[in-house]
Amino acid sequence: MSERGAREGWTPAITDGEILTDVIEQAFDYRGDITIATRDGTRRVGYLFNRRRDVAVPFIQILPVAGGDPETITYAEIQSIAFTGRDTAAGNSYAAWLKRKESARAAAETPSGDPSSAGA
């Protein structure tokens, strides 16, 4: 997936550990909430802020949308990951930022209509 906004609403099929690792990386880069379905049937909704696959028991950590302490979920517990929250970074590319910055600069350089600046 090349565009961040394209992930909103996406629930990829996780068929093996390699795909799970890839989906976790994409969820880590995502700037919205995700929903984790675990193998015991529970669902956890939150923002993925940490992941560690280079440890004996790989895990992710989310900040629950309902508040409270961060939750740790092992890779082995994860059945699915859904990109359920709005991607707050969608459409906020560097090009869009640059365009806004140039518009603001142009507006600042335009005479304000102040009569004292008319040169009378």
How do the strands and helices of this protein lay out in sequence?
Elements lengths: L16 H13 L4 E5 L4 E10 L6 E6 L6 E4 L3 E5 L11 H16 L11
Antiparallel strand pairs: 1-2, 1-5, 2-3, 3-4
Average pLDDT figure: 82
Kindly provide the radius of gyration, computed on alpha-carbon positions and rounded to a whole number of angstroms.
22 Å
Per DSSP E runs of 2 or more residues, the count of β-strands stands at 5
CATH class assignment: Mainly Beta
Walk me through this protein's architecture.
The protein is α+β, with helices and mostly antiparallel strands and 120 residues long. It has helices at residues 17-29, 94-109; strands at 34-38, 43-52, 59-64, 71-74, 78-82. It has a five-stranded antiparallel β-sheet with strand order 4-3-2-1-5, covered by helices on one side. The longest helix is centred in the C-terminal third of the chain and has 16 residues, at 94-109.
Characteristic terms for this protein:
single chain, 120 residues, alpha+beta, SH3 type barrels, 5 strands, 24% helix, 25% strand, elongated
Brief account:
The protein has 120 residues and is α+β, with helices and mostly antiparallel strands. Helices cover 24% and strands 25% of the residues. The protein has a single domain (4-109), classed as SH3 type barrels (Roll), CATH 2.30.30.100.
